[in-house]
Each structure stands twice: as structure tokens, then as C-alpha cells.
Design brief:
It is a single chain. This protein has a two-stranded antiparallel sheet with strand order 1-2. The protein is mostly helical. Strand 1 and strand 2 form a beta hairpin. Helix 1 runs parallel beside helix 4. Belongs to the FlgN family.
Length: 164
């Protein structure tokens, strides 16, 4: 693998990774919009798409990391070298491109993680709100207990028992 084909191939890998993380961010944004609209069916429908997109993003990232390891090995650098550490082996004119792609991917990863956390919090609050409504409708169906660590846990009776 020559340096010329290496930087071109690695750049293509970075572009693919950027595209997959962008698609993942879009799905999290769609999920959040559906959560805000309280569209449970749409949220559920997105779950499989999210899982599939996470797998694709992981696979593309793994592919890029393998390409970087192969390149590092081909130039007698440690296989665990980061792309930023290896950039001086590429032609100077492509350094800004590679740095921009790396920075944008890192920015997207940050936004994806933030979106995932926000959606997780929204989902948890939705579940809590539903449990509260159920507690008001059937207070005898829920029992508060304490875990060994002292945290309050809510146990609920199965619906068939609560119905009597």
C-alpha cells in the first residue's frame, strides 16, 4: 500500500464514517421529535433502525481503524498509533482535509452521544409519568420497597392480579 493510495483510502473511510454518524444523529433527532410528539408507535419503529445504524457506524469505524493499523504497520509505526499521530506521513496538502474529517467525526460523535442521553432521559421520564398515572388509577398495584443500597424500588403487581 503506497502512501498515495493509503491517504486516499483512509480519507474515503473517514468520509464513510462521517456519513454513518450523520445518519445516526438524524435518527436520534427523529426519535426525539417523536418523543416530543408522544408518538409511541414512531418511537418504537425507530428502535430497529437505530440499532441497525449503530451497527453500521461501528462497522465503518472498525474498517477505518483497520486501515489505519495497516498503514501504520506498512510504515513501521506502532499499530496503535492514531491517525493524528500518523498524519505527517501523508502529503502536506491533504493534512487539512484529514484533520477536518477527524474533527467533524469527533464533533458528530459528541452530538450523537448527547442526543442519545437526552432521548434516554426523555424515555425514562415518560415511563415515570406512565407509572405515576397507573399509581393514581390503581394505588394498591404498586408497592415501595428498599434495595440493600437504600434506594427506593417500586414493585407492581401483574395486571391479572390487580384486576382481581
Amino acid at each position: 500500500m503506497t502512501v498515495s493510495t493509503s491517504w486516499e483510502f483512509i480519507t474515503e473511510c473517514l468520509r464513510n464514517e462521517l456519513q454513518e454518524y450523520g445518519a445516526l444523529l438524524g435518527l436520534f433527532e427523529d426519535q426525539q421529535a417523536n418523543l416530543l410528539r408522544r408518538d409511541a408507535d414512531a418511537v418504537l419503529a425507530l428502535a430497529n433502525s437505530l440499532e441497525e445504524q449503530v451497527r453500521r457506524a461501528h462497522d465503518v469505524r472498525e474498517h477505518r481503524e483497520q486501515a489505519v493499523r495497516r498503514f501504520a504497520s506498512s510504515i513501521a509505526e506502532p499499530k496503535d498509533s492514531t491517525l493524528r499521530q500518523l498524519i505527517h506521513h501523508f502529503p502536506a496538502e491533504v493534512h487539512p482535509l484529514i484533520i477536518a474529517l477527524i474533527d467533524e467525526i469527533n464533533h458528530l460523535i459528541h452530538r450523537v452521544r448527547r442526543g442519545a442521553r437526552q432521548n434516554q432521559v426523555m424515555l425514562a421520564r415518560t415511563v415515570e409519568a406512565h407509572e405515576e398515572v397507573l399509581r393514581m388509577l390503581r394505588p394498591d398495584s404498586f408497592t415501595k420497597t428498599y434495595s440493600p443500597s437504600g434506594a427506593v424500588a417500586h414493585a407492581s403487581s401483574p395486571a391479572w392480579q390487580a384486576a382481581g
